[in-house]
Amino acid sequence: MTTELKNPRIHQILSKAMIEMSIGEMEQIRDFFNSEQSVRHYLRRIRRKTALLIAVSCQLGALAAEAEPEVARLLYNYGYNVGMAFQIRDDLLDLSGTEKQIGKPPGSDMRQGNITLPVIYSLEDERLRASLLEELKSIREGYSTVGRAIDLILSGDGIARSAQLASRYIAKALAALDQLPNNKTKRNLRDIAFFVTGRAY
């Protein structure tokens, strides 16, 4: 459908986003079981992998509708922050949710080597770091399930800190949304933001 749109900026934005998203996926694979990742590194990765997709989707909708540039910018900001919150929420649910809630065994990300934000925060905790590193090594070598690692993470504040950061991103999304005219679409976007904040699946 985008091929039918004549605005060259739409195609430029979409092409750049596709490249960035591909880089994000490759970075995630490259960093499997890399326990030295920083929070900044994680945030950059999910920006490329998830947030950019939602941000650009919101922005391109505005551009396709020939909205004012400021509207497109605000919708991009909204989508970016919702996307960041969505991925963080997804990552913490992978560790704190049940299989029935999330549709997969808890700890699936960690099992495949994907070091997410709650794990990074937990590795910053000196009370947990040595034991968690040992568990991650055992998981990588196939000697351990993720159960013990999940228990260690749940015993610290990694889940709570992740949830707090997700909430801050949602607050930024809502702040961008507040600058747009009141209409049904704005209310729907607000509902989406609140859904992301509280979703349990």
Write the layout of secondary structure elements.
Elements: H1 8-30, H2 39-64, H3 69-96, H4 99-102, H5 108-111, H6 117-123, H7 129-141, H8 147-155, H9 158-177, H10 184-198
Give helix and strand order, one letter per element, not per position.
HHHHHHHHHH
Mean pLDDT: 92
Distance between the termini: 31 Å
Task: Count up the helices.
Answer: 10
* Silhouette: elongated
Rg for CA atoms = 19 Å
The CATH architecture category of the domain at 2-101 and 162-198 equals: Orthogonal Bundle
Total strands: the figure is: 0
CATH class of the domain at 2-101 and 162-198: Mainly Alpha
Determine the fraction of residues in helical runs and give it as a percent range: over 70%
The SS-based structural class is mainly alpha
Fraction in beta strands: under 5%
Main beta-sheet annotation = none
CATH superfamily of the domain at 2-101 and 162-198: Farnesyl Diphosphate Synthase
* Oligomeric state: single chain
What characteristics describe this protein?
mainly alpha, 201 residues, single chain, Farnesyl Diphosphate Synthase, 10 helices
Descriptive report:
The chain is an all-alpha fold and 201 residues long. It has a domain at 2-101 and 162-198: Farnesyl Diphosphate Synthase (Orthogonal Bundle). The chain is 74% helix and 0% strand. The protein contains 10 helices and no strands. It has helices at residues 8-30, 39-64, 69-96, 99-102, 108-111, 117-123, 129-141, 147-155, 158-177, 184-198. α1 (8-30) runs antiparallel to α2 and α7 runs antiparallel to α8. The longest helix is centred in the middle third of the chain and has 28 residues, at 69-96. 35% of the residues are buried. The mean pLDDT is 92.
